[in-house]
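User: Modeling request: complex.
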Amino acid sequence: MRAVKVEHMNNDIINNIGLNHYLILAALLFVTGMAGVLLRRNIIVLLMSIELMLNSVNLTFVAFSKYLGILDGHIMVFFVMTIAAAEAAVGLALAVSIFKRFNEVNIRFFEHLKG
Amino acid sequence: MNHSLLMALLILAPFVGFLINGARYKKHSANVAGVIATAAVAISFISAVLLVLDLVAMPVESRKIAVSFFEWMAVDKFKINAGFVVDQISAIMILVITGVGTLIHLFSVGYMHHDKGVAKYFAYLNLFIFNMLLLVLGDNLLVMFVGWEGVGLCSYLLIGFWFTDKEKAAAGMKAFVTNRIGDAAFLLGMFVLFITFGTLNFSELNALAPTVAEASWLGAVTLGTLFLFIGATGKSAQIPLYVWLPDAMAGPTPVSALIHAATMVTAGVYMIVRLNPLFIMAPNTMMVIAVIGAATAVFAATIGMTQWDIKKVLAYSTVSQLGYMFLACGVGAFGAAMFHLMTHAFFKALMFLGSGSVIHAMHEEQDIRKMGGLKKYMPITHITFLLGWLAIIGMPPFAGFFSKDEILAYAFNSPFGSPVLWAAGALGATLTAFYMTRLMALTFWGKSRVPSDIHPHESPAIMTIPLIVLAILSVIGGWIGIPHVIGEHLGHIPNMWEHWLHPVISPIPGWQAIDHTTEWTLMGVSVGLALISAIVAYQFYVKAPETPKKIAESIKPVYNLVYNKYFVDEAYFGGIINPLVNISRNTWYYIDVNFIDKMTYWAGDLMRGMGSMVRSVQTGNMQQYAMYIGIGVVVALSFVVMR
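Assistant: Request completed. Predicted assembly structure:
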């Protein structure tokens, strides 16, 4: 009985997960990523945070796609993933070169463009 | 040989010489450079002789060799060819330029032997000959103007040849600037003529000229010719723009002989003769030319009487003789002007080269007070200088006599002339005889005043040969223009000069043949006056050297005025140059520095101030930028959502 109830409850929860839940999760992920970008000093962490933000956007795309029953969002996600991969490659290359130069991966070494 | 080829050879040979010497001016020794340069001019001379021989062989009515190499520019109706023409007038000029030029190049080989920049010197000299040929051969005013500017440039370069001496460099600059004033007027003259006639071609202008006689002062022809004449006063050193020529003596002496006596300074006279049908249509211009010419002739001669520098005396003499040529042009005696131009080229080049020989012998000493008695040491220079002296003071039968007396006869008899102009001319001749005799006496005759550490010596053959040739020309050069009144007593010798130039010289309107008694009288008076004045000068400076000093003492204010060249330079400085400099300096200080500069600084400071306000935003901290972007997105979105 108890098990059934749980199963029922689970089904219930799954059935009750709507667009809003996805959007809220995506927003949370996005804010987490953004906080990482704005606050952390380690370039690697920064890159990871950017991935997080990109993936939160992907989540919204897929959620909307499912909600509206069209495939456009899916296609967009593939684009974003490709670009994210490229961006990660460039970003990591930068991180490597900055590490080679300064023996550290701290963002403050990029602060040469002061006005 | 065909004419275009000869013409090209004539013009380009000196240019090639210039390129060769100019390209290797540090390498060539005096002899190499001298041979190249002299050969270049000699080739020119031979081409000129061949061309003139062809010209003589032509029938009188079509006597003209015209070559057009290419169309230089064509703008609407303004079409200019690189065209060159040898006719009766330019034939004389090319022979004088290349002939005397060759002799002077030869002389320079000896004179400039010890100079360091000798190849550069010869390069400039060749370039000068090239430009001078452009000037006289051009068949339109614009080609002439190119040569006109070119000779001015070479004159500047050669006057300031020893430019490490600041005074000499300044003399070159003065010559250039003074010439530029004249050149500006020359340009204006060209504009006026082009607007009026629609062409700058000499033959077309001269063909159109007889239709435009005008008596007013402000007519196009009068204005145009007056402007051209102002150009001529610059180039040919007439009042008021003569001041550069005496200073131009800072250049090497052969340069003074070639440029500042024989050729370049006569360019103005040549230009007027070239356009004589046009000038004769403007009686007012003619009057101005005659008056300026006569005034210059007397004015410069008086200054010449008081100078102590051998070259300065000759320089003022040149100014004065050029005055004669302009007097001749002004009274319509264009043929006589050309005649005097040629004889003057001979004897003045001779005297300048002679003075060069003296200066060379005296180790760069130019003060005639430190000379005297050089006859003994320099027999050839003395004899040749003596012949030049006889020619310039107008003793028959030397060259100067014929040309000068023809000018004086015209000045007296021409409808454009007047007894006053004649009297001025005769006075000029008298003064010329005086200062030239003075120069002879102080340099060659009398007791030697040479400092004991200088041992004068005769110059080498390479310098005396040109002197001898020029001396011969100074003696016989006048015989091709013997006036009828003398010729008929010598077995009817024709006046070859007049016959030669007759087709290209406009007749003087209202000319009445001069009767023989008058002509003999005029001749007698001017020769007599010159003779007396020469004897007086001889007495003064050889027999009784104290007399001139006493006379100078007794008329001290006048003497000082003349000795200081009438303070014309000072007047120009005080009246024109310094005020101009002051105006420039004030505009520079008050307008440029204090207004325009300040304005731009102020604008710059404004931008900088504005920049500094927002500069702190750019920290270089990427995370901050990212935050700004984030805030921006939020603001933008909330704006969209709230609305």
